[in-house]
Design goal:
By secondary structure, the protein is of the alpha/beta class. It has two domains: 58 residues, Arc Repressor Mutant, subunit A (Orthogonal Bundle); 185 residues, Rossmann fold (3-Layer(aba) Sandwich), CATH 3.40.50.1360. Helices cover 37% and strands 25% of the residues. It has a seven-stranded parallel sheet with strand order 6-5-4-9-12-14-15, sandwiched between helices. A three-stranded antiparallel sheet has the order 1-3-2. The chain has a three-stranded antiparallel sheet with strand order 10-11-13, covered by helices on one side. Helix 2 packs across helix 3, helix 5 crosses helix 6 and helix 6 packs parallel to helix 7. It is globular and about 65 Å long.
Amino acid sequence: MPRGARERRAAIVRLATTSGLASVDELSATFGVTASTIRRDLAQLESAGHLARTYGGAMAVNTNHEATLRQRSSEAFEAKRAIALWAAGQVRPGETVLLDSGSTMSALARELTHVQNLTVVTTGLTVLQELANVDTVQVECLGGTLRHISQGFVGPLTEVALNRMTFDRAFLGADGVTAERGICEADLHQTRLKELMAQRAEHVYLLVHAAKLGHCPFHAWAQLPNSWTLVTDVEAGSAIVPFQERDVDVITVDAEGHAR
């Protein structure tokens, strides 16, 4: 292989690692070669395990470990409960709300059992378990392919069902979030689904404890709508400033679930 190709492929890996995603068109312009040359580069890098191919480009192979839902359930337990308390207080009788999958959503589901005439739509298996015996809540499941590690449904069947509904409120979780890029997740199917969820709701809330602010452990991203609310705990401190500078509504809650 010519030295130029070796150096180009090494540079492609570096770009994908620093920026998260690299498109064929961008790489072609950057290195002054044809799109077909870039596609051959990406195929070789994927075969060697250096990159993972995506539609129209590639992303760096993730070296971080995605925690299981059971592992995450024990993290920041009190903060998640406080966030869930505040979020439940926003829900009104008669509404239809969408709950993402995840441990914070399970905590929120437990707080919604006394809301009258409520419909809860969810992709989360643990949310279904929390509400399975609550006769006063109508539960709709957006089925699809189950991601065992997160206990959430994703994929085309989930998206088809989602596109037939709208919601008063959508409550989303995340592995991380930044003010510049939005929601960070381990899997591109998750980020696509979260974007679709946000598009279907009148009010969008992202529920994340303080440690997830500015945290980007993976390379799959979901953009948030122009208007959304970040809900976190009081430990966030100055980490909320980048979001406020972008005119995001930020709510920080104390241990009792009261906004500060």
